[in-house]
Amino acid sequence: MLALADIVARIRDQAPAVRHVAHGLAAAEAPPAYPAVYVYPLSESADPAPTVGPIRQRVVLRIATEIIVSSARGAGRGEGAVEAAETARAAVIAALTGWQPSWAEEPLQHRQGRLVTLEAGWASWRDEFETVTWRQ
What we know:
By secondary structure, the chain is of the alpha+beta class. The protein has 2 helices and 5 strands, in the order αβββαββ.
């Protein structure tokens, strides 16, 4: 079972530079503090189950962390926001990479990251992490 609250708690414990962490529908609201990190499920893919016997599928789960930063520095070009995002991003990657949630069969691995938004004074960056669990 995917329990995003475990990941949120891990980021809160291990990345004190991040001022707000939430998951689920909270991502639709403006963060009360920056830098903010939102955690949400991104994708799930399962290997085919055997055609005979009990069903047991290996399931690869991809989880996203979206870092949102705000910064007035950079003369309206967002350079300060990108710098703040990199600091928060390094803390989140360090907190999650190699850590195994209680519901997972393998530790989280960082898979990729990308800039989502860059505007005057704020930016958002999404990193994707992957783990494996089994469905029976």
